Amino acid sequence: MDILNKVANSGLVTLDLEELYDNSAKILFDIKPLLFKELILKEKDFREFITVHNWKSYQDACVGITCTADAIVPNWAYMLIAANLQPYAKKIVFGNLDELEKELFSEAIKKINPQDYQDCRVVIKGCSKIKVPVSAYVEITTLLKPTVKSIMYGEPCSTVPVYKKAK
Description:
alpha/beta, 2 domains, about 20% strand
């Protein structure tokens, strides 16, 4: 008696969002240590830091710029940091590392051609070694829904139905 692999013969297409993960270094640039008493940005001191800081250390990294102190930081301070990071960093966002990850996944998903999944039964893989943001699952669902036959979540052997095109 032959054993049939029903999963392999099901015609399901598995999409693993983990494969979209950007393995570049992720660095948080927090302005907090540059503030006087964690409250005030002194322009002279800040501009001095900008001129002496080793910006090359961010080469090819993805950087989130934020301030974790409860302080009012002028917009131009973030702009100065971004301007100095720009020649070196691969990606710069305003936000923490979670927001940086969301942005990186969003950019990767936007590169997917939904027509490649035309009339397919797609399983969005649920288990991964890295933390895939929920926003990535939402974005891939809205991207694929107009073209696919169905969307499921999980593993091909155990899926949760998300969407099925009406016949």
